[in-house]
């Protein structure tokens, strides 16, 4: 028996070494991939298995979206993937049960993806449904007419579609309803969710609040008349209005309020160069 056992051990030995070697290699590859994923926001297995593409008709609309057209090829692919996933992840409804068009889905998803493009978490987990209206609607909260309203408890973002479209088409007036309302979603998320992007947003929002306590900045803000006065309603409106200016008047914003611009850029993990 004994020689046979010895033979078996000898026979198995190379396989055992190979197995141990393979396990070590797997661990090393795992850590390298994890490092690359964190560095480049690239989930190789997810990309390999479920890379999402838009249908041709939707892609035609995507190609008219200004932010998308200025991206490099690989970022374009990532943007398209995120837009497709965002559309698959959310419910789009019309208040009068009208069908939702491809244009509506693409424009709204593009705005959400543009706002979160620097981040890893872009699906806005505190949002389930986007509810479209044919114009301003009566708010359940205060019975006034609103163009947009986010209800974090119901996880619904209600939007007046004509106003979304106007904000999207006129790019120099610092009014952009969808950017404004999605910023509220991102802001509330930063207070309630624990992932790294939410924490970063929260941190730089705190920096902005601290900066606002400086008399020097307050006086400058009041005198410059750059931001519309609605910005000073409360901290949520301030962030939302600032973000509209960030995308529509970045040059002047950066020139006049470099510190605020810097903090907002960091909050969104955004590259403006
Ligand atoms: Zn608002």
Describe the structure.
By secondary structure, this protein is an alpha/beta fold. The chain has one domain: Cyclin A, domain 1 (Orthogonal Bundle). 63% of the residues lie in helices and 8% in strands. It is built from 13 helices and six strands. The protein has helices spanning 2-40, 44-50, 56-62, 66-69, 73-89, 102-115, 161-169, 177-192, 196-212, 215-224, 235-248, 250-256, 258-268, and strands at 91-94, 129-133, 137-138, 145-146, 148-151, 156-160. The strands form two sheets. It has a four-stranded mixed sheet. Strand 5 and strand 6 (156-160) form a beta hairpin. The chain is globular, with a radius of gyration of 24 Å. The N and C termini lie far apart (74 Å). The model has no long low-confidence stretch (mean pLDDT 90). It binds zinc ion. Zinc ion binds at residues 180, 184, 237, 240.
């Amino acid at each position: 028996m004994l020689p046979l056992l010895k033979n078996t051990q000898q026979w198995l030995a190379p396989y055992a070494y190979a197995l141990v070697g393979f396990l070590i290699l797997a661990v090393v590859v795992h850590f390298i991939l994890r490092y690359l994923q964190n560095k480049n926001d690239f989930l190789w297995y997810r990309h390999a298995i479920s890379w999402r593409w838009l249908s041709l008709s939707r892609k035609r609309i995507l190609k008219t979206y200004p932010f998308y057209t200025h991206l490099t090829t690989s970022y374009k692919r990532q943007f398209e993937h995120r837009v497709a996933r965002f559309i698959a992840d959310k419910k789009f409804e019309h208040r009068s049960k009208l069908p939702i068009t491809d244009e509506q889905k693409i424009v709204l998803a593009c705005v959400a993806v543009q706002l979160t493009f620097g981040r890893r978490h872009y699906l806005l987990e505190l949002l389930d449904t986007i509810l479209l209206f044919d114009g301003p609607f009566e708010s359940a909260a205060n019975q006034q007419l609103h163009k947009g309203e986010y209800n974090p408890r119901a996880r619904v973002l209600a939007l007046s579609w004509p106003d979304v479209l106007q904000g999207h088409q006129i790019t120099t007036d610092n009014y952009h309803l969808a950017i404004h309302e999605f910023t509220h979603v991102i802001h509330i998320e930063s207070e309630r969710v624990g992932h790294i992007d939410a924490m970063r947003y929260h941190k730089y929002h705190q920096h902005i609040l601290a900066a606002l306590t400086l008399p020097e900045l307050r006086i400058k803000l009041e005198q410059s008349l750059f931001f519309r006065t609605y910005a000073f309603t409360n901290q949520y409106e301030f962030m939302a209005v600032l973000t509209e200016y960030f995308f529509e008047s970045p040059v002047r914003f950066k020139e006049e309020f470099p510190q605020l611009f810097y903090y907002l850029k960091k909050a969104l993990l955004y590259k403006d160069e």
